[in-house]
Design brief:
The protein has two domains: 78-268, no CATH class; 294-462, Rossmann fold, CATH 3.40.50. The chain has a six-stranded parallel sheet with strand order 3-2-1-4-5-6. Helices cover 58% and strands 7% of the residues. By secondary structure, the chain is of the alpha/beta class. The protein is built from 17 helices and six strands. It starts with a helix and ends with a helix. Helix 14 links the parallel strand 2 and strand 3 (367-369). The protein has helices at residues 3-23, 30-49, 57-77, 83-111, 120-145, 159-179, 184-202, 210-232, 235-258, 263-268, 294-302, 313-318, 321-333, 352-359, 370-373, 395-398, 449-462, and strands at 306-311, 337-342, 367-369, 382-386, 417-422, 442-446.
């Protein structure tokens, strides 16, 4: 295929990527944006396959078939609660691909007894370094999210110093590769150390900050892809990798702002513990949590004029979004105003609650962001918290020693009545108890969120 036509195809693909990202900024246009980006990727792949030098089409076709099959199976079988782990894996595989491509290109030069020139040696080193960190870091994020290893920060003496030394050594090896581009030993050592660095960078980060880690690793995978584009001289890969890298960094910044914390604090402060706590009603000197039944709650819901529903990870675990939508529809038929309060970091990934509620066909205009919904809580009769914890913890406003101090929260405690649906009194990802549970206006309903909401629906119906 003509080289100019290929570049035009890459330009068209890049344009679709940009338009797709723009449309992904709103739930109303997200499906369109995803489709546009997918079409752009298809164009880029086809243009690459038609590039001169691509010779082994059967192997490529086999890879496409196997990869597409695995992707389809995972997409169909993975539950929304496991989607963060899925994203972490995809980030990791993207980083691994960058390492493998960089290594294959270096071996190609060595076999031809040629020396890479220009930006290629630098790109090979950076693709190896960033890709390795992304792969191993994403693997640790996956294990933490899947609860195959402790979600608590794992720290040891001189850990930060060791990480700094490793980073400097890796940077030195990148310089060494730039000066001796065909030195395979440098590449191999860099690959091993970058994998180790990725592990050491992620293990001290607690479960509370995993959503930020995921978006940051997504950015890393984009930067690794961008470096790979320079290695291969593929402008389409450079552009798409740059877009992923930039969008990941922007999302990371947005999430850090939502927690009122800097990225350095997220990466190095080791926030979050396994948490303790039982399923009872007391917690130290904070008071006693009052347990209620769905039938008790139904009376208050039936007499309310306004309700704000606050979804959290517990709703995702229980897959309760459809039952929540049924409850909202029932209340609205009674003339009760129902809205949903969405915190930017509720759940385990950005937009987690939005996706779940959209799956249940909740109208987009009912999903209200934190800054807009907070002034409404003091005039709200009932706030229904479904599995949320840290994002509704008043400790963030008052306890300077708390790891979540200063984090913007949803002001549910200012509603007239607060119902909290939880399985137990265990703390959230940050590992701190929530004084909201012991407030005079708070009523706890223990149990599976989906079952509880369904019982609440039946109880409200009986009062009609």
């Amino acid at each position: 295929m003509n080289a100019q036509l290929i570049q035009i195809a890459y330009l068209a693909a890049a344009s679709l990527f940009i338009l797709g990202l723009h449309n992904l900024g709103s739930p109303k246009t997200a499906i369109r944006g995803n489709t546009m980006a997918a079409v752009g990727m298809a164009i880029a792949i086809i243009a690459t396959l038609l590039t001169e030098g691509v010779v082994d089409y059967p192997v490529i076709l086999a890879g496409i078939v196997v990869g597409s099959g695995l992707g389809a199976v995972l997409a169909l079988r993975i539950h929304m609660t496991s989607m963060p782990q899925m994203v972490a894996l995809l980030n990791g595989f993207g980083g691994l691909a960058s390492v493998l491509v960089a290594g294959a290109e270096l071996l190609s030069y060595i076999r031809r007894d040629a020396v890479p020139e220009g930006t290629v040696p630098v790109a090979i080193g950076l693709g190896n370094l960033i890709g390795g960190v992304t792969f191993s870091g994403s693997a640790i994020a996956f294990l933490k999210l899947q609860e195959m290893m402790s979600g608590a920060p794992i720290t040891f003496p001189l850990q930060k110093l060791l990480n700094a030394v490793l980073a400097l050594v890796c940077a030195g090896l990148c310089v060494g590769l730039a000066m001796e581009p065909t030195n395979l030993l440098y590449f191999e050592i860099l690959a091993g150390l970058s994998l180790l660095l990725g592990i050491l960078l992620v293990i001290p980060i607690g479960g509370a900050d995993m959503p930020v880690v995921i978006s940051l690793l997504n950015s890393y995978s984009g930067l690794a892809a961008c470096a790979t584009g320079f290695v291969l001289g593929n402008s389409g890969l450079v552009i798409s990798g740059s877009l992923v890298g930039a969008s990941g960094i922007i999302l990371t910044k947005i999430m850090c702002d939502a927690m009122n914390r800097s990225l350095l604090n997220v990466l190095f402060a080791a926030v979050g513990t396994d948490g303790g706590g039982g399923g009872g009603a007391a917690a130290g000197d904070q008071g006693t949590a009052k347990g209620y039944t769905p039938e008790d709650a139904a009376v208050i819901f039936n007499n309310a004029r306004s309700v704000i529903i606050v979804p959290g990870y517990g709703m995702a675990v229980a897959q309760a979004q459809h039952a929540v939508r049924e409850l909202a529809d029932l209340l609205e038929k009674k003339g009760i105003t129902v809205k949903y309060a969405i915190h930017p970091v509720a759940g385990r990934m950005p937009g987690h609650m939005n996706v779940l509620l959209a799956e249940a066909d909740v109208p987009y205009e009912r999903l209200i962001e934190m800054d807009e919904i907070n002034p409404e809580f003091p005039q709200t009769d009932v706030a229904l918290v479904i599995g949320a914890n840290d994002v509704v913890n008043p400790q963030a406003r008052t306890e300077k020693g708390s790891p979540i101090y200063g984090m913007p929260i949803l002001d549910v405690d200012r509603a007239t009545h607060v119902f909290v649906l939880k399985r137990s009194m265990n703390p959230g990802f940050a590992g701190v108890q929530n004084p909201l549970f012991f407030n005079d206006n708070t009523m706890m309903i223990f149990g599976d969120a989906k079952g509880t909401v369904m019982k609440l629906v039946e109880a409200v119906k009986e009062l009609s």
